[in-house]
Design a protein that fits this description.
globular; 74 residues; 3-stranded parallel β-sheet; 4 helices
């Protein structure tokens, strides 16, 4: 299983760095500085099954729309 993260450096992100490999999954970090359209394409292209998103990034309107469309959430 692949797990994607879209987050700034924080203690929560560090926890994911440790927890995801411990559960036998592959961690896929997504650069939060990319354009919204690029961010939306990456999880599907990498076949990620789970996506963790930092709250401050999720609130960015362009990124939110792109992520919702990429994962089929409306």
């Amino acid at each position: 299983m692949r797990v994607a993260t879209l987050a700034w450096n924080s203690h929560r992100h560090l926890e994911l760095y440790l927890a995801v490999p411990c559960m036998g999954a592959v961690l896929h970090t997504i650069n939060a500085r990319l354009q919204a359209l690029d961010i939306a394409r990456l999880p599907a292209h990498a076949e990620d099954r789970v996506l963790f998103v930092d709250r401050s990034i999720w609130r960015t309107v362009g990124t939110e729309i792109a992520l919702r469309n990429a994962f089929g959430v409306h």
